[in-house]
Hints:
Blueprint: E1 2-8, E2 19-21, H1 26-29, H2 37-44, E3 52-61, H3 63-66, H4 77-80, H5 91-95, E4 97-98, E5 112-120, E6 125-133, H6 139-146, E7 153-159, E8 162-163, E9 170-171, H7 179-183
Antiparallel strand pairs: 1-7, 2-3, 3-6, 4-5, 5-6, 8-9
The structure holds zinc ion.
Zinc ion binds next to loops.
Amino acid sequence: MIDKISEYSFINKIGEESTHLIKRKEIKNFPRKYIPDDLKLFLKNFKAEKGNIYVLNSALGSGEFWGTNSRGDRFPESGLIHRGSQWGYDTYNYYGSLFRHHINKDVLNSYGEVVLSSWDPELHRVLLVIKIPIEKKNEDIIQRINNDEPIETSMASKQPYDICSICGNISKRISDHCSHINNELLNIYPDG
Ligand SMILES: [Zn+2]
């Protein structure tokens, strides 16, 4: 297994803010026309539990459509769309919590929880609803969200292996990485 950290900018590649405060009557305010069915149902019945705010986060998209992230990783759509607790977007529904700086071993250190992970087939991406308790430890996060300030997010995951896009080498450990991954990450060759 390889531990991965993926980082996402506060403005995603289609110019949307990646994190968006969910308000009442959200369906009317939703930034896009298309809403996945499970998210639509969630928003239709949306009632904030007292003492919490909720944000919508555009977490990650399939590599085929969104390309490579800033760390040179791309996640194939076939892996992301898988349902169940083993891999894919559904794993957020089982294990997803909000952490700071990837101190994520103990759920007691979390700052919020993923209450819905939804696959957006139109934009080939994972959308998360995250519940954040209004507590002292979250004061700065909530202030930034309420002031519409940029929030950058990242994701930690475990991957069974990496495949090099140049030579096809499969590495199950970092020590198995080929020279392309070690020395030429994010380089684009003249032939693409
Ligand atoms: Zn290689």
